[in-house]
UniProtKB/TrEMBL annotation:
Domain Thioesterase positions: 53-125
Organism: Linnemannia exigua
NCBIfam families on file: unchar_dom_1
Gene3D superfamilies: Hotdog Thioesterase (3.10.129.10)
Alphabetical keyword list: Hydrolase
Protein name: Thioesterase domain-containing protein
Lineage, top ranks: Eukaryota, Fungi, Fungi incertae sedis, Mucoromycota, Mortierellomycotina
Length: 153
């Protein structure tokens, strides 16, 4: 539960910033987390669809981006770095009403880069697979300052 609570705090900061994530992923639910891994869900709604009535690729790309960031947060990181590379394979579609299950893991976190993998499914059907690389050197410095400030208070 501590990892999940930490990730929920990081997600609340993302949403509190009021940017793109807030507009697109306000309904994202963080279900469970363990070190370096987080499971989330999102119900596909009308605003998530493309003009043909399927789940928009931009939404799936955003989920890969955010999922990778939350997997890094699950490594006890407060700041999660900036994207350097995002790769997505769109495998099948999703439609309005579908519940997307998002399984994100941090494959490796080093001093400079973190590598993540995100799998999006509806039931047992893979919708999209993604890889997300993030630059985390400055995030490590921010995290060290955050931990120091918590110890001082």
């Amino acid at each position: 539960m501590p990892v999940l609570n930490h990730c929920r705090n990081v997600w609340a900061n993302f949403i509190g910033a009021g940017g793109f994530d807030t507009q697109v992923l306000a309904g994202l639910k963080l279900i469970s987390a363990s070190k370096g891994r987080i499971l989330c869900e999102l119900q596909v709604q009308k605003q998530h669809l493309n003009r043909q009535g399927g789940c928009h690729g931009g939404l799936l790309s955003t989920i890969i981006d955010v999922g990778g960031s939350l997997a890094i947060a699950a490594e006890d990181m407060h700041a999660t770095g900036v994207s350097t590379d995002l790769n997505i394979s769109f495998v099948s579609g999703a439609k309005i009403g579908d519940k997307l299950s998002i399984d994100s893991r941090c494959d490796k976190i080093g001093g400079t880069l973190a590598y993540t993998t995100v799998e999006i499914k509806v039931d047992d059907k893979i919708v999209a697979l993604g890889r997300h690389t993030k630059y985390v050197r400055l995030a490590h410095k921010t995290n060290a300052k955050t931990k120091l400030a918590k110890c001082s208070s």
